[in-house]
Amino acid sequence: MDLESVIHKNTIKEESWKTLLTLAYQSLGVVYGDLSTSPLYVYKSTFAEDIQHSDTNEEIYGVLSFVFWTLTLIPLLKYVFIVLRADDNGEGGTFALYSLLCRHARVSLLPNTQLADEDLTEYTMDNGTVPINKKNVGLGLKTLLEKHRVLQRVLLVLALIGTCMVIGDGVLTPAISVFSAVSGLELSMSKEQHRYVEVPVACIILIFLFALQHYGTHRVGCLFAPVVMTWLLCISTIGVYNIFHWNPHVYQALSPYYMFKFLKKTQKGGWMSLGGILLCITGSEAMYADLGHFSQLSIKIAFTFLVYPSLILAYMGQAAYLSRHHSLESDYRIGFYVSVPVKLRWPVLAIAILQAVVGSQAVITGTFSIIKQCSALGCFPKVKIIHTSSKMHGQIYIPEINWSLMLLCLAITVGFRDTKRMGNAAGLAVITVMLVTTCLMSLVMVLCWHKSILLAVCFLLFFGSIEALYFSASLIKFLEGAWVPIALSLIFLIAMYVWHYGTIKKYEFDVQNKVPINWLLSLGPSLGIVRVKGIGLIHTELVSGIPAIFSHFVTNLPAFHQVVIFLCIKSVQVPHVKPQERFLVGRVGPKEYRLYRCIARYGYRDIHKDDMEFEKDLVCSIAEFIRSDTSEYGLGLGGSFEEDTKMTVVGTSASNMEGVVRMSSEDGDQEDCQMEGPSSELIEVKSPEKLRKRVRFVVPDSPQIDWDVREELLELMEAKEAGMAFILSHSYVRAKSGSSWIKQVVINYGYDFLRRNSRGPSYALSIPHASTLEVGMIYHV
Questions:
Q1: What is the pLDDT of residues 154-171, one digit of tens each?
Q2: Residue 456: exposure state from Cβ atoms within 10 A (0-12, 13-18, ≥19)
Q3: Ranges of residues in the chain whose predicted pLDDT is under 50
Q4: 655, containing H or E segment
Q5: Computed over its alpha carbons, how large is the radius of gyration of the chain?
Q6: pLDDT for 55-111, tens place per residue?
Q7: How far is CA 381 from the centre of its chain?
Q8: Of the residues 454, 553, 597, 661, which has the maximum number of CB atoms within 10 A of its CB?
């Protein structure tokens, strides 16, 4: 028996290692595409103009030393060994850090947060356990952040700056990667011909790249990892060849001594050239941003044992070649391709172009992902999000953003036509994101990990000083291309903050103009009007109280629906909400009023279901609440209306599949959810012929179901069969009289422009127009 258990354990270990290595291999195509492309343009950007080469190797050795230690300290030490540990339930990125901080200190500026959200499984760290803060480490810092709203806004702006620079990187990386790959044509044609060929070819590749986004990357994603693997093996092999063929002693440049010698000799020119050197870590942030697609260990293994050594060998090989070719000035200008053996240049050029496309694809996908997160957390206007794969998590496509990125990318390529200025722009975007990550990470160490403030300060000073040095070198080239990411980020930052500010003000207006519960109770169960069959679904941002839009209906319409549901779809500060924790359901007023509140909670990375699936889950959750509810009244009596503690957590129908029986339907176009006794099992009847199905309830004659519960379920069934009407508020937000001119510009022009050009609620995008009723309301904020 002991032998069998040992064999079983070994089998499990082998399978886990196979899975781990498979993930590490797959991560090459998604995570390391951009980072692996950097050897194409690092030396070319570094030696562009700032450094005058001499007959000695001091400049070349100095640059190689900087590249080696930058790759070692930032991607390897900072990201692999430290930052990757700060995952938000497996997710990474700037907003993951911000989300962690919001949950460990009450610094979230999301308006409709509830105490019930803190009971979510993923709200706590490390699979449901929060590290115990025995020594009250960072308690003063936490109190300081929670007390001063200005600091909370600074924290939000810091996260938004990092996000905006990621979007800027989504514009610049495809341009410089494709342009640098195509620049290899310079070696096979005259300078005059090359000038007229390089830009058009780069533009054609970029247009092709962005045009493919609509189809999703899952169809060609299986080719990404082999392309990056081939590229890494190619550049490392060429690097080894150049080292042994041209200069076997180039390893001496790995000594930090050559960095100081380089700066001492080149002085200001050497400092300015750091803007080109920092391009060697372009794409390092993807290790953390794409953490949700892979595991920590798989990303660490791929970088430590393949990507890092391959890049070091590639840079050493280029330096070895350049150290023996001082006389050819073009060698410094062309960069990578001149160090490739002549017979291999065309195959390497083809692989490089494929690699540039893969690297660009990873950045574009990352841009879509972070914009989705921003939109979910109320920091970006609502955009159309298309899920291109039903199997692969995170594969999304945003048409408006895609074509905007393409136009900006083409403008950069045609406008600059120069790797140096593109490199200056890309470098500033990359290093800004890293600085933001360093700042947020130091706060996470104190507030989330409960490490000493001294350790966090040391982390901030060590990595912050290195990144600040590169940041200053990039910023000094403001007029030589570095203005591009600043301009792009400023535009996006203003748009995001205006949207966030307007959203908060609109919510505050809703809260201040809620209808009192006493008004509702005074109307009686009929609400003073005729109640007709059907369900009225009123969309609201409120998580408690009756929205003002409801009083407009009751006072102006002669009839209203038999069942009314106040629906709030909100995002919470976690990446995912489990299906069994999706809905919070409660009553508004007594049972006979048939008024319900349903709050659908989504994480910032969750996929919103289509309208039919969402409608089914919503009605099933109301039915489950009715069956399990034992209270006589809903929220609102005895002055407890503002509380949401009496709301019940109800999962989606998909999360309650235990005991579900599937059977054929006679009419073939309906889906039955049958309530059976106290266990409330749902019997789904699905038709394999049609994708879109209706939902109806069959309430059997059972003595186990209370008569009142049975009657209420029957009413819900009849209302659902009669149809569902969606009531949406079409809001016009205006600054109230007496507001400052800045607020009037922000609200009346900025927010209004963004609102008119944004999408409605995601679940309402495909609702038939005949079922939708929009009510105009003016908000004076």
A1: 998 999 999 999 999 889
A2: buried
A3: 1, 3-4, 6-12, 125-132, 134, 330-332, 634-645, 655-696, 765-766
A4: none
A5: 30
A6: 677 888 999 999 999 999 999 999 999 999 888 877 788 888 888 888 888 887 777
A7: 14
A8: 597
> What amino acid is encoded at 547 in this protein?
P
Give the H or E element holding residue 78.
none
Strand runs (DSSP E) across 457-615, as ranges?
A: 530-539, 559-572, 583-587, 595-603
Pairing of strands 681-684, 694-698: unpaired
Tokens describing residue 663 = 């059977």
What's the 3-state SS for 664-722? Answer: CCCCCCEEEEEEEHHHCEEEECCCCCCCCCEEEEECCCCCCCCHHHHHHHHHHHHHHHH
- How many Å apart are CA 67 and CA 315, to the nearest integer? 8
- 759, containing H or E segment: none
Tell me the C-alpha distance between 716 and 720, whole Å: 6
pLDDT digits (tens, 9 = 90+) for 584-639: 898 888 888 888 999 988 888 787 766 677 788 888 888 888 888 766 554 443 44
Rounded Cα gap, residues 543 and 584, in angstroms: 10
CB atoms near residue 93 (< 10 Å): 30
Cα distance between residue 202 and residue 222, in whole Å? 24
CA distance 572 to 673: 29
The sheet carrying 670-676 orders its strands as: 681-684, 670-676, 694-698
| Nearest-angstrom CA–CA distance, 413 and 182 | 12
Q: Are 682 and 660 in contact (CB under 8 A)?
A: yes
- Asked if residue 713 lies in contact with residue 596, where contact means CB atoms within 8 angstroms, the answer is no
**Which pair of structure tokens corresponds to residue 363?**
């950045």
